[in-house]
Amino acid sequence: MDPDIGIDVGLLKSEIRKTYAAVSQEPEKDFIFPTGRAWAEDLGYPPELEQVPAATVESFAGVANPFSLGRLEPGARVLDLGCGAGTDSLIATLMVGREGAVTGIDMTREMLEKAKAGATEL
Predict the structure, then answer these.
(1) What residues contact 31, with CB distance under 8 A and at least 6 apart?
(2) Which end of the chain is more exposed for a tag (fewer CB within 10 A), N or C?
């Protein structure tokens, strides 16, 4: 328990991990936040979304569309913190091309496994 904020930080992290593991493994469930392809489309994701494997996009749990700020340039280097199932990372990969590089980091092992599978399929 963190006495400054009155929250058991360890428990909070554990519950967050459990929730995102469930998004990865059971994307058809209802969550307290929007998920999936329809949510990504509602956020105005770029056309590259269509090239991302369906299994990746079904576990999309983003809070915003980073590509609304503009396209990534070929050759760019990208770090995706909290990459989840990898939707943003894979779109970034398509934009930066072979000259660029994308690294995704997430706290949830199940999401990272899904992101790796999507990268292999792409």
Answers:
(1) 19, 22, 23, 61
(2) N
